[in-house]
Amino acid sequence: MCRWLAYSGSPIRLEELLYRPRYSLIDQSLHSRLGVETTNGDGFGIGWYVPGAPEPVLFRGVGPAWNDPNLREIARSTTSPLFVAHIRASTGTPVQQTNCHPFRYRNWLWAHNGSIRDFHRLKRDLVLAVDPELYTSMTGSTDSEVMFYLALTYGLRDRPVAAVERMAGLVESVGRAYGVPDPLQMTVATTDGDRTWCFRYSSEGHSRSLFYSTEMSALRRLYPEQESLRGLSEETRLVVSEPLGELAGAWQEVPESSYGVIQKGDDELGRFEPAMP
């Protein structure tokens, strides 16, 4: 499968999360502890927002993240208040740049860990459900990108949770029609540059791992000696496939079949329920 993280809060350099933590995303590309595969070397990507720009910047590569000098250069010189990073382990589709996450449509980003089981059998029916006006923007061949464009088709830009629930409902319906057991496995991060939505769901009820960071005020009380926590705002949040470190109390598991919204003010956590479109 894959590993990803989504960050929102005080502007920081990308390397602070991609390289510096003990279990950074780059470390996870070689030594994942909670993933299906230990190594995630089939490409990588980062999408980050620049205040005032209409679209996020996207940098993707087909090589392993741990061995890309351009990624290291960008990470140490780029600061952003909101970004999504992904390291890929292919589930069967080609290793090519257009198949690397995150995917971008205008101001939206999308990253996924998981798969649509027997995607090669379900793909035609799913792709035909994509809005024709959106279809021409699809450039890759992954199930993850099809999920993104189905969510866009069902209203991601207006009602994100409902749109992803409809996408999941369609995948399960088509899967059942083809006799595919437990067709959907997903953790997803998607953002419009202001709010970030995260989802954890699987048809079998045993989803891939997903965690979110504890509130900054609580972490500072627990670890007053941690200098890295001092400059971060109370709005700062991080969602990850697996924790970046071992500070007790720093990470909370996202419940099974749930969605979360990271936003200014109170965040939101709710029940995720697929629905037929």
From TrEMBL:
One protein family per Pfam: GATase_4
Membrane-crossing segments per the record: none
Keyword Cell inner membrane assigned: no
Domain annotation Glutamine amidotransferase type-2: ranges: 2-243
InterPro entries named among the record's database cross-references: EgtC-like (IPR026869), Gamma-glu_amide_hydrolase (IPR052373), GATase_2_dom (IPR017932), Ntn_hydrolases_N (IPR029055)
Any one GO MF annotation of this record: transferase activity
Keywords: Glutamine amidotransferase, Transferase
Protein name as catalogued: Glutamine amidotransferase
Native species: Actinoplanes italicus
